[in-house]
Design goal:
Layout lengths: L3 H15 L4 E6 L9 H8 L6 E5 L2 E6 L2 E6 L5 E6 L8 E7 L3 E6 L6 E6 L7 H4 L24 H6 L9 H11 L12 H20 L40 E5 L2 E5 L10
Antiparallel strand pairs: 1-6, 2-3, 3-4, 4-8, 5-7, 6-7, 9-10
Helix pairs in contact: 1-6, 5-6
The protein binds a DNA duplex (14 and 14 nucleotides) through helix 5.
DNA sequence: GACGCTGTTCTATT
DNA sequence: GAATAGAACAGCGT
């Protein structure tokens, strides 16, 4: 589920539903999801009020006054709000019980998700956040983005690299490259100034539209708090192997690029020029 | 039953 | 460095 638009959708849902609640206790059933010492984590988080929800790249930030709790959903993390005392289901690994009779359950079939709590004043120094590249939405099309696209790696790998741009994952990388009409294996370095701008422009437009639609729910997953993303209907190449390209009717191909399943149109996204 | 996928990212190896 | 393979884990389809 979660790339930037999905994480942003979760952030908004949590902001609507749990902002202002106070965390009475935290139950952790799978300690390795917590970065650092578990007791330290609980000491930092318990008793604090959720003042607001923020996001950086694919990280959710629970702002608890003087403490920030980072939550990364990785592949399949989801949140559900339930009455306090509801027994955790099989794949629910962390439960935040609030003082008002409700609880937030973290559900993650593959247990890849992570949590980390840090004092607010050291948030800037958290390595996970420090390494992240800029938010695509914050770039100006007039900015010099040459650095982002440097190197010989395929442009697809560059878009997936969170230190270059934050928040893009496998679905949106494919959609952005189709929008920009660039072959996913083309080395980043070979993009001229016009193509670099086109990639940023496509990234901003596609991510914004996906946020508007509440993200995508590819496969049969539902989004947090029971909300369904609608953007998967707008996907033009991702998961569309064998189907006609909406622009030129050529058959969409699937290839393995940088170790990831990659969908593209062989006609719109030629290797040579863009 | 085995194998090869899956929206992520970190670590070890080449 | 930089690119790639493997690992963390569970489920689903072939």
């Amino acid at each position: 589920m979660p790339e930037l638009p999905e994480v942003e959708t979760v952030r908004r849902a949590l902001e609507r539903t749990i902002k202002g609640r106070s965390i009475e206790s935290v139950a952790v059933f799978h300690p390795r999801m917590i970065q650092g010492d578990l007791e330290h984590f609980r000491n930092l988080v318990e008793g604090r009020r959720i003042e607001r929800l923020s996001r950086r790249g694919k990280y959710l930030l629970f702002i608890l006054g003087e403490v920030a709790m980072l939550s990364h959903l990785r592949m399949e993390g989801k949140y559900y709000l339930k009455p306090a005392g509801t027994p955790p289901e099989k794949h629910e690994h962390v439960v935040f019980t609030f003082t008002d009779g409700w609880a937030l359950h973290y559900h993650d079939v593959r247990k890849f998700g992570t949590f980390e709590a840090v004092p607010m004043h050291s948030l800037e120094d958290v390595p996970a956040l420090k390494k992240l590249g800029p938010e695509p939405a914050e770039l100006d099309l007039r900015d010099d983005v040459t650095e982002i696209f440097r190197g010989e790696r395929p442009i697809k790998a560059i878009l997936l690299d969170q230190t270059r741009l934050a928040g893009i994952g496998n679905i949106y990388a494919d959609e952005i490259l189709h929008c920009a009409r660039i072959h996913p294996e083309r080395p980043g370095r070979t993009l001229g100034v016009r193509l670099r701008r086109r990639v940023i422009d496509c990234a901003q437009r596609i991510l914004a539209a996906a946020v508007q639609a509440g993200g995508s729910s590819v496969r049969s997953y539902r989004n947090t708090l029971g909300e369904d993303g609608r953007f998967e209907r707008s996907l033009r190449v991702h998961t569309h192997e064998g189907k006609p390209c909406p622009d030129c009717q050529s058959t969409i191909r699937k290839a393995q690029i940088s170790g990831r399943g990659t969908y593209y149109c062989p006609t719109c996204q030629r290797r040579k020029k863009g």
